[in-house]
Amino acid sequence: MSATHISIFGLGYVGAVSLACLARDGHSMIGVDVDTAKLDLIRGGNTPVVEEGMVDLMARVVASGRVEVTTDVDEAVRKSDISLICVGTPSAANGSQDQSAMLRLASDLGRALRGKSAEHTFVFRSTLVPGTVEDVLRPIIERESGKTEGRHFHVCFQPEFLREGSSIRDYDHPPFTIVGVNADAPRERLRRLFGHLPCEFIATSIRAAEMLKYCCNNFHALKITFANETARLAAALGVDPFEVMSLLCKDRQLNISTAYLKPGFAFGGSCLPKDLRATMHLAKRHDVELPMLSAILSSNRVHAEHAIGKVLASGKRRIGMIGLSFKPGTDDLRESPLVYLAEQLIGKGLSLLVYDPEVHLSQLLGANRRFIEQHIPHIGSLLRNDLAEVIAASDLLVLGISGGEVQKAVASLGRPDQIVLDLVNIGAGAYRSTVEGLCW
Ligand SMILES: NC(=O)c1ccc[n+]([C@@H]2O[C@H](COP(=O)([O-])OP(=O)(O)OC[C@H]3O[C@@H](n4cnc5c(N)ncnc54)[C@H](O)[C@@H]3O)[C@@H](O)[C@H]2O)c1
User: Fold this and answer.
1) What pTM was computed for the model?
2) Active site residue 271
3) Most buried of the four, 17, 45, 266, 285, by CB within 10 Å?
4) Could you identify the atom of ligand 1 that is nearest to the CA of residue 167?
5) Do residues 139 and 22 share a domain?
6) Exposure pattern of 351-361 as b/e (b: 16+ CB <10 Å)?
7) Structure confidence at residue 329 (pLDDT)
8) Are 63 and 145 within one domain?
9) Rounded mean pLDDT of 81-97?
10) Which of 173, 204, 235 is the last residue of a domain?
11) Ligand 1 binding pocket, CB closer than 6 Å
12) Mean model confidence pLDDT for the chain
């Protein structure tokens, strides 16, 4: 790996560890912080943060002569080709992200760039709410430097995944390297710095990289809370929570896997809603509060209502629904979110026809007939056996199932004046209708 001149802004946990590791890897580092006490510590070969391995590593890299520190932003930009920006982005009192340090620094970086003729890459590593780099920071740097991003300089966003307490180990073994970037040159520059790490190097859009960092942290918080809520209920029931969670983790097919982690329509069916309700009832009986689990069904309802809102907002009144059972490949209509959707649309006075290949079949066989007759007779009468008829009679099609037959029919029979509300992410295709994803 050839040495690069790198400036790092913000020498807290992320910045100090990155500075030490990149210097260890042979790069020339110039660290910048507004806190001169931190700079003095580093100058003396000491670490400004308490982290396993940092005392030795910092002493070693400072002794190597590859580390400088300064408060001078101009000097740091001038002496480097690439800047990693790691200043703090804490919570403001109202929960929003306090970007004041970042905004001030972006102005300073822009002004520093004004006097530099060589190309420069700014890599934002602080956690930033999606849109910040392109909509807020890039314009500040352009305004203050008088230069244009993409021509004179580049901005990237590379989320940091290290954890305090194991940060050097995490730096060397990240789950992946994600680089949000708009051009080849900065992407390859970052590949030269981080491509040797034992993980996948993935380039994506800047916004996706910004959002991913939040998703990862939210997911981790959700996992911890799931384990803790499970433990509170287990303890109340006299069950060993460690045993239950360790068994849960053994299932790599459905539990610890990519299963269920794709956006789609609301869940339903004969198991998840009823078992969640029973869990909540049990918790109540034992005076156990489970705020996260108890919010799941209402969140699921909000998701179904999002679809209803989209249908109503379209202004279309003749609706065709493709799919009715709670998931493809089954005729089970119990607690199907599509049945809920159909009921809501009928309730709003829209005209509705429904096609579902499995339900049609089961009706013929009589398997589901009784359920339809007893529980949803109003929907049973709207079922049609002919998909073409439903498509022809509708101005908006709600696509609740995918599959060759359905996609082919929508592609060949859909009309340009027709909207397809896609609940299943059918993907690209030669559709004449306007395809609108539920939230994609
Ligand atoms: N701590 C973690 O484990 C971790 C992990 C991943 C991502 N992050 C994110 O990385 C960012 C940094 O986190 P941290 O924990 O290292 O923060 P920190 O608070 O430990 O350090 C931030 C540093 O930035 C300095 N600073 C503030 N304004 C400055 C300026 N204008 N110029 C130069 N330096 C300036 C501060 O003096 C401080 O030393 C945050 O956005 C955080 O969310 C943190």
Assistant:
1) 0.94
2) yes
3) 17
4) 3
5) yes
6) ebbbbbbbbbe
7) 83
8) yes
9) 97
10) 204
11) 9-15, 32-35, 38, 86-89, 101, 104-105, 126-127, 160, 162-164
12) 95
